[in-house]
Design goal:
The protein is mainly α. Helix 4 runs antiparallel to helix 5, helix 4 runs antiparallel to helix 11 and helix 17 crosses helix 18. It starts with 6 loop residues before the first helix and ends in a 6-residue tail after the last helix.
Length: about 450
Amino acid sequence: MAQRMNWDKLLSTKRIGRDENYTDISQPPRSEFTRDYDRIIFSSAFRRLQDKTQVFPLAKNDYVRTRLTHSLEVASVGRSLGVLAGDMLKSKEELPDGITPQDVGTIVAAACLAHDIGNPPFGHAGESAIQEWFETNNVFDDIVCAQKNDFLKFEGNAQGFRTLCTLQQAPQKGGLQLTSAVLGAFTKYPRASVDEDSQDWGISGKKFGFMQSEKDLFAELSVELCLIQKPNRKAAWYRHPLAFLVEAADDICYHVMDIEDGFKAGCIAFDEIVNLHQPWLTHEQRVRAEQIKDKNRRVEYFRAATIESMIHEIFGSFTNNYDDIMEAQFDRELSARIVRADEFRSFKKLANKKVYKERRVTEIEACGFEVIGGLLTSFTRAIDIKAKTLPHGQNKSRTLLSLMPVADDLVGLSAYKRLLLATDFISGMTDSFAVELYQRISGISLP
């Protein structure tokens, strides 16, 4: 008989990093999951998303989305999907006592809010820049293969788990000490980094979701949630069911919103927007849209109506595949199994053609490679000089380290932890701060 996940465990309120006997003295009206949402939104890592790239780096147009506005929109869509899932669980009598459909919505919303919290400056180009720097620099003395992969395949999702569970509120064990349910929903890729081909691992193994530095914390999480471990895999599990909804909320938002940003930035023609949205609108909605004369407002109306339709199609995919999800037999994006899957993909196809390759985007991404590479070179060397007490370069190293939030005593720190110090510092930067710091330490500009 196939294993089946259990909602009594999947919706656990146990906070990772805390002892079992910990009692929270705070009182209602906030639920445990609402507290998670609030902890994320008030965290410094979340605030920094206001100056991190979504599509257009360092955009001057206030309308164009940043990672912050994107994350808030994803959380809004995720809440709707979560409440629908909670209602379904209630109708099936699978919702644990004391948990409401609104609680399920809050779990998904909180996970969505944090889904990009580990992304470095300059978006996915920043991830590539970090990976490329480690591929071309010999900095892996005394580091085991599993640890090397954390850097060679640097992944914003894994850095996000580290941000939530280690870096925020450090040195407190568990970081923000979020509930197991929210961390489970957050982790789209519940596996460690490996050096083997992961193409046949399913969508949950497409990337990795935690670093070697957090492997014990994730093991604790997997036990608490009773996640199903993948057979014959190294430190890999099947997803928490709500992680599929988090992924879908992100998919909906970046498909629709990136196109809207492209229109606002002049990359996408109005007629192209109309063609993308038409399949998602009812007759009444098309009539209503024609009455809106201002094109910008009409595009915003298209977006609202289309997202509503997509939410219901995604939820239909979740319910249709529910039993397979619970038994770890379904490992694909929910959006791949909706009725209008081709129409959904059309948004991304147009974005790939006209938005993501737009000159302004690629120019800044190229700048990002130079900036991140330069920062990694400077700060990894400064950390090494201090940690190894090397005789040359002490003065410059001391000056650079004064710019970092690191402990004074680095002597004897392992090579793995030294590299983590550098990637934690640089991946946490905003776009503007990274550019400004690079220019200043390179002598290109002065304060």
